[in-house]
């Protein structure tokens, strides 16, 4: 039986748009799925960006420079949108109102107010599937830790740590871009640090003291002068998580300047019965420590099989990588469009509610930095 085709439009034809095009081209890598994305329209204000899709993606039928024209295209069922954060509220809302399914890039609005506007549009269009891009939890090692959390393997939680680190901004000669200006970005990369705990601990995070670090104060403006770097470089957030029967600390960190790291995403959970950790820096390895009273405490480090949410043609002995996680994320999104709640495996893409939770956490953290006080988060429930 032929796969059900989902006709996609791409708004924002930069790096991540190309990653989606690559994932769609590799769809034969997946086994036992009955759906498939097909990119039929693209939109970018930069003609050369859209031209890349015309040259490399044979399925593209139309290109646009104005996104509303793409939204008016009746042949487009779903949208992948990757635009600067200050454009999220307007464009995401227009996509949702047009009745197109949306996979949008983090952080779903430049700030909490913009995020609330997007959520209001979602509430009015319940038939539209809206999800937030978050590929790292689809690594097999991360999937294994999620499974252990769901199985309550850890006993009483002692501590959780999660983070997303990279080091490209250590180069002070790197020209400034929109990611270092407050008008276009506040805390978008912080979403990656939140993603590991979003489902498990989101509404139990109560208090947030925050440490923000500015390391590079100015950099080249690309025109022979310099420009101020307005956003923070590194952020460390110490949360207190309180559930019905326990309380524990959770350390979240997002770092633009972490020497030696290139998009390292990690999660560590320590518990009285079991501990585990995974990092994309060592994508084949996962570490775990099962504990029995009175028995020796020893970490077990092993190569996690290449076993992902959706089956692939790749043998279990081979390495899993970033492009594989993108493919898995797209499979989960397409699965929801076709099968709604009856998706083929247990792990869905990040939800708008989880993105809203990250805004709550990091808005509280920014308030903590301004006042020097610990901020208690009101989840409104």
UniProtKB/TrEMBL annotation:
- Cell membrane: is it a keyword of this entry? no
What keywords does the record list, in alphabetical order? Oxidoreductase
Which Pfam families would you find in this protein's record? GFO_IDH_MocA
Instruction: Give the Gfo/Idh/MocA-like oxidoreductase N-terminal domain ranges.
Output: 6-124
Q: What is this protein called?
A: Gfo/Idh/MocA family oxidoreductase
Q: Which organism is it from?
A: Paenibacillus gyeongsangnamensis
